[in-house]
Write a structure and sequence with these properties.
Elements (H helix, E strand, L loop, with lengths): L6 H5 L6 H8 L5 E2 L11 H12 L12 H15 L9 E4 L1 H13 L5 E6 L4 H8 L3 E6 L10 H5 L6 E7 L11 H13 L3 E5 L24 E6 L12 E4 L2 H14 L5 H13 L1 H24 L12 E2 L10 H12 L1 E2 L1 E2 L11 E4 L4 H17 L5 H5 L4
Parallel strand pairs: 1-10, 3-4, 3-5, 5-6, 6-7
Antiparallel strand pairs: 2-8, 7-8, 9-12, 11-12
Bound molecules: pyridoxal-5'-phosphate.
Amino acid sequence: MSRYLSRSVQSLRPSGIRRYFDIAATMDDVVTLGIGEPDFVTPAHIVDAGVESLQLGQTGYTSNAGIYELRAAIAAQVEQRYGLRYSPENEVLVTVGVSEALFLALKILLDPGDEVLVAEPCFVANPALVETAGGIPVMAPTSADNDFQVTGASLEARITPRTKAILLSYPSNPTGAVLTREHLLQVAAVAKKHDLVVISDEIYERLVYGVEHINFATLPNMRERTIVLSGMSKSYAMTGWRIGYVTAPAAFTEAMYKIHQYLIMSAPTTGQVASLQAIRSGEDDVETMRQQYDRRRRLIVDGFNRLGLSCFEPRGAFYAFPSIAITGMDDETFCEALLQEERLALIPGSAFGESGRGFVRASYATSEANIHEALDRLGRFLTKRGLIARAEASVFAA
Ligand SMILES: Cc1ncc(COP(=O)(O)O)c(C=O)c1O
C-alpha cells in the first residue's frame, strides 16, 4: 500500500527514540533514563483549574488564537521576564504544544527546497518537521570539545542562496547545553548578515542551573526576525495538556494563525484554562521542580564522570549527555547491550543527529532512587567488561 504515500512521508525516518521504548516495553524491571518528560504530575491547583472548567461546562472551542486572558498572561510573563513586549491581540498564538508551533513556524517560511540551518545534536522532530514543511534541514554540528555551542562560523559555512532560517533549541535536548551570550550574538550576526529568520525553541527556558536564560528576541535587532516558541510541557509538568505558544512579530503570528485555524481550530480548552492558572500561580511549583532537577543533575553528572563516562556539565533542561568512548562500542550497540544485560534504558546520541554519535542521552527527570539504581547497573555493565574496578562501581549502590 505504500505506493499511495507521498514521497515526503515515505522518506521520513521513524524516531530513533521509539525503538528503545518498544524493546523496553517487552521487559520487566527496566530502569529508564530514556524519557524526555517531567516525572512530576501537574501541580494540584493547576489540575483543579482544568477539572473545574470542565465542570463549569467549558467544553467547546476557544477563540482560534487561544483564550484572550491566557494570551495576555503569556505576554505579561514574557515582558516581566525579558522586558519584551508582544501584543496579546496579534503577536501571541496558543498552540498544541511547541510541536505544532514548530511546524507552523517552518511552514510559513519555507518554499519547497528552502534550507534551514539546524544546530545539532537536536530534538528529533527538528529535521523531520523541516522536511515535512517542504524544506531541507542543513545540520550544523556541535561537539563536546566546545560544550556543544553552535558557532557563527559553522553556520556561516553552511549558508547558500536557499538558506531561509536558523532553528535553535536551547537549553538543548539532548545535550543540556545552554548557549552563551557570546555564541548567541554570533548566531544573531549571521541572521542579520544573511537576512534570516531565527526560530528559537525555548521550551526549557525555566529549567536552567546557575546560568541565566537569554530569550533570543532580546538580542539587539533580533525581535523583528525571531519567532520564539515555548510552552507549558516542561516547566509546569504539563506535557499531556498539550499547550504551547508563540511570541513573534504580527507578520509571523498572523501567518501561523492562518494555518492553525484550519488545522487545529483552537488548542485544547481545558489545557488553556489550566495554563492560565499555571502562569498566574505556578511560580513556586516551577522553582520547586527546578531545584529537584538540579540535585539530580549533579548526582548523575558526577556519577557518569566517576564511572569514566566523561560528561560535560549540562546547564539546562533535564538531560545529561556522557561520552561512551571508553567502551569502544558504538552508541546503538552500547544502548542495546545495556538494555538487554542490565535492563537500563538510555538513548543513543546518534538518534539526535550525526554529531551525537559516541554519546548517550540520559534523562534525569526521574527519582534519585532511580538514578542511583541506574548508575549501579551501569557500573556493573562496565565492570563486567573490565572498564572499571568493582570498588568504583559499587559506590553507586542505592
Ligand atoms: C526541544 C523540544 N522542543 C519541543 C518539544 C515538544 O514540546 P511540546 O510538548 O510543547 O509539544 C520537546 C519535547 O521533548 C523538546 O524536547
